[in-house]
Amino acid sequence: MEEVEVLESYEVEPGLIWARIYKSRDGELMYAPIEPPLTERDRKVLERIKEAVFSMGEPRDNVLVLRRGELDEYLQRIVRRAIHEFKIDVPVEVWPKVMYYVVRDFQGYGPLDPLLKDPFIEDIHVDGAHVPVYVWHSRWESLKTTIVFTHEELERLIYRLATLVGKTVSAADPILEGMLPEGYRLEALTDEVSARGHSMTIRKYFVQPITLIEMIRMGTISLDAVAYLWLMMDYGRNIVIVGPTGAGKTTLLNALLYLIKPNAKIVTIEDTREINIVHDHWQPLVTRPSRDPAVRNITPYDLLMVAMRSRPDYVVVGEVRGEEAYVLFQAFGSGHSGATTVHAETVEDAVRRFLTKPMNVPPMLVNLAHIFVRILRVRVGDRAVRRVTDVVEFYGLKGRRPQFTHIFRWNPDADALEKVGESRHLDIIALTRFVSKRVLEEELERRKSLLEDMVRHEMTTPYAVSRVFSMYHINPEYTLQRVARGEFP
Questions:
Q1: Cα 190 to Cα 147: distance, rounded to the nearest angstrom
Q2: More confident residue, 347 or 61
Q3: How distant, in Å, are the alpha carbons of 42, 82, 93 from that of 86?
Q4: CA–CA separation, 280 vs 295, rounded Å?
Q5: 22 φ, ψ to 5°?
Q6: 70 pLDDT exceeds 50?
Q7: Alpha helix locations (H) across 245-385?
Q8: Parallel, antiparallel, or unpaired for β 199-203 and 239-243?
Q9: CA torsion sign, 323 to 332 to 373 to 483?
């Protein structure tokens, strides 16, 4: 579409890729990846090189199969050999552009490559052939792109993605699910079940996890709330993170897991690997869906039953959807601590989901979800941002009515997560763990001080956060003194 007003431009890959967000003449917001420009002569040279490279490679299922880890060297070598053997004239000034597109199409993801490299793009949606690709942008939300695939281009891409995730896709098995080499989740369908042609969704995740210190700096959560949750986790309170799709539930869960003591055994159960922590005593388990009657379908329920026999200190289910919720709450009832996420708009909706099918958590056990943390995508000025909007203590049901106390609530006018209530769990912990409430309150203040110093000295990386939190559990005074001076403990 013709550009009317450019709203934002930024560099994605130095000297090669730019992104442009603009408003079209129809008033629609558009996303355009700007790649090295090619003349008609450049395009012909590129096509000849690609045909030559393909003929010299190892084609399988109409895809050039390359060994990962040796791709750059292999491509350089095979392109030069192809140019020499097929006597292709490549001007010196065209060579960098040619190599960019060869690498993009044979090693990368074709026209989707710039989108996958853009750190502000979270999801990529290909709804079919001859229709625009859409993206979810962290600053501009849903955007139509200038990328449109033909049926043949989509077919080649689907087969290439199947090769990369190590699975097959066909008319007999038209659903492709898996993780791309970068750790992104792929859900793809062939035209056997997708009426507009082959379709796919790619959900991107941060290769380096976002830490709580970064979240404090970004305003996602407050320093006081992090100190509170840290203390609650240390004393075995179970945490449920609530929010709609794309709110950042898993990102927040991952960040909270860094607070767990370094010697605690953690078991995580997920459909797709998203949790990434640095604890040594960590057992990550992943489900294995199967549509083949000869291959057993491994569900979260199965993995949770196995996990309970391995004496974990902390049990984490990436997202509860069904009967695994019942087993998780049974684990809470037997003394295990844990955390999970649930898809719901409000805390009340989350409790209702726990109580009804297919979760069917007994009312006697549902109060073991001690603390609910609600996170949403909201608008602050002209920006779309993620904010923890509620931190709530849950005390079970009175009749069928959930009993809550709000500890923190987001103030949209001030864009701040403010303390609005006193914790009853401090009293419960003091009573059941034989610790005076004054000691707990002093510990809360010490942790606030530590977090404040970490923010001030920009100790934001996963390594730094893990090091400080781990050392605090071992030697709190030493850690407080070192971090106050801006030094690692």
A1: 19
A2: 347
A3: 16, 6, 20
A4: 31
A5: -140, 165
A6: yes
A7: 249-257, 300-308, 324-333, 347-355, 363-366
A8: unpaired
A9: negative
Q: Which residues contact 41 (CB under 8 A, 6 or more apart)?
A: none
Per-residue burial over 12-42, b = 16 or more CB atoms within 10 Å of its CB, e = otherwise: beeebbbbbbbeeeeeeebbbbebbebeeeb
pTM (whole model) above 0.85: no
User: What torsion, rounded to 10 degrees, do the Cα atoms 432, 437, 441, 442 define?
Assistant: -110
Q: Does the pLDDT of residue 306 top 90, yes or no?
A: no
Coil, strand or helix: which one is 290? coil
Q: What's the N-to-C CA distance of the chain in angstroms?
A: 55
Tell the residue number behind the tokens 């794309």, with chain if given.
246
Non-local CB neighbours of 473 within 8 Å, separated by 6+ positions: 261, 262
How many residues can be counted in the chain?
Answer: 489
> Residue 287, CB half-sphere, CA atoms under 13 Å: how many?
21
DSSP state for residue 339 in the 8-state scheme = E
For residues 49 and 133, give the distance between their C-alpha atoms in angstroms, rounded to a whole number: 27
Read out DSSP for 350-366? HHHHHHSTTT---HHHH
Question: Which tokens in the block code for residue 402?
Answer: 């959930």
Give the burial string for 186-221 (b: 16+ CB within 10 Å, else e).
bebbbbeebeebbbbebbbbeeebbbbbbbbeebbb
DSSP calls for 161-224: HHHHHT----SSS-EEEEE-TTS-EEEEE-TTT-TTSSEEEEE---SSPPPHHHHHHHTSS-HH
DSSP 112: G
Q: By three-state DSSP, how is residue 122 classified?
A: strand
Q: Can you say whether the dihedral through the CA atoms of 21, 32, 116, 291 is positive or negative? A: positive
**Cα 427 to Cα 438: distance, rounded to the nearest angstrom:** 10
Of 251, 231, 220, 217, the residue nearest 417 (C-alpha): 220
pLDDT tens-place string over residues 120-148: 898 999 999 999 999 999 888 889 999 99
Q: Beta-strand (E) ranges in 337-415?
A: 337-343, 371-380, 383-398, 401-411
Query: 89-113 burial by CB neighbour count: b if 16+ within 10 A, else e?
Result: ebeeebeebbbbbbbbbbebbbbbb
Query: How far apart, in whole angstroms, are the C-alpha atoms of residue 256 and residue 88?
Result: 56
Mean pLDDT of 387-400: 92
Tokens 């609005």 correspond to: 420
Give the residues across from 188 on adjacent strands: 176, 200
- Alpha-carbon distance 270 to 317, whole Å? 6
